[in-house]
Amino acid sequence: xxxxxxxPRYLIKTRGxxxxxxxxxxxxxxxxxxxxxxxxxxxxxxxxxxSETQRNKGNFPGRFSGRQFSNSRSEMNVSTLELGxxxxxxxASSSVQGKETQYFGPGTRLLVL
Amino acid sequence: AQSxxxxxxxxxxxxxxxxxxxxxYSYGATPYLxxxxxxxxxxxxxxxxxxSGDTLVQGxxxxxxxxxxxxxxxxxxxPSVHWSxxxxxxxxxxxxTNKLIFGTGTLLxxxx
Lengths: 113, 112
Fold this sequence. Notes:
The structure holds 2 protein chains of 2 kinds. In chain A, the strands form 2 sheets. In chain A, strands 2, 4, 5, 6, 9, 10 and 11 form a 7-stranded mixed β-sheet that branches. A 4-stranded antiparallel β-sheet of chain A has the order 1-3-8-7, with no helix packed on it. Chain A is mainly beta. Chain A has strands at 5-7, 10-13, 19-24, 31-38, 42-50, 53-57, 64-68, 74-78, 87-94, 103-104, 108-112. Chain B has strands at 3-5, 10-14, 19-21, 24-26, 32-38, 44-50, 56-58, 64-68, 73-78, 87-94, 100-102, 106-111. Chain B is mainly beta. In chain B, the strands form 3 sheets. In chain B, strands 2, 5, 6, 10, 11 and 12 form a 6-stranded mixed β-sheet that branches. In chain B, strands 3-9-8-7 form a 4-stranded antiparallel β-sheet, with no helix packed on it. In chain B, strands 1-4 form a two-stranded antiparallel ribbon. In chain B, strand 10 (87-94) and strand 11 form a beta hairpin. Chain B has no helices and 12 strands. The chains are: A mainly beta, B mainly beta. Chain A binds chain B through residues 4, 6, 31, 33, 35, 42-43, 45, 48, 50, 55-56, 58, 90, 92, 94, 97-99, 101-107, 109, and chain B through 32, 34, 36, 41-46, 49, 51, 90, 94, 97-105.
């Protein structure tokens, strides 16, 4: 089975722009979660989607949003980018919502200039 | 509140030596615990997990971890470290919600 894929792998944007990141979960997985990883804050939960519905949300401003499609693929969007949004954005998928194992993709490295 | 503490930010061991990475968690009920490894510029790879049952769990790459409820710990061990084990290791707990709470990570360096 193919693993979790994320596109693009690297991205450079300037302040004020917006960005969309994409995540394709493992085939058959219906839950997708997003995490932000920075040297200062570590790994932080952004949100989780299951069956096209946001089920959980972390403590991030409304500039961070996401959605999930009927094929379980997910996108996250960050509007009005700030320098502090520079991070590795990781997507994880699990088979169902609940206490199942999450498998991570390689991440998208976002640099905001 | 749920939390995970990894007391060691950085550890250096010699190749062939044994390894133990510490992890303490805070969670009221029976936790679901995980160890992930991250190589530079990469995502997180699952090493092992504990949901219930046998408190000593085996993972990939020769790693094992022991769940000790009385100490709220889930330490990762490997009897003989290889140079390819150099990476950052994250302990995580998954509680009532679906999200993972991660520790700050332990960076492992392996000396030849």
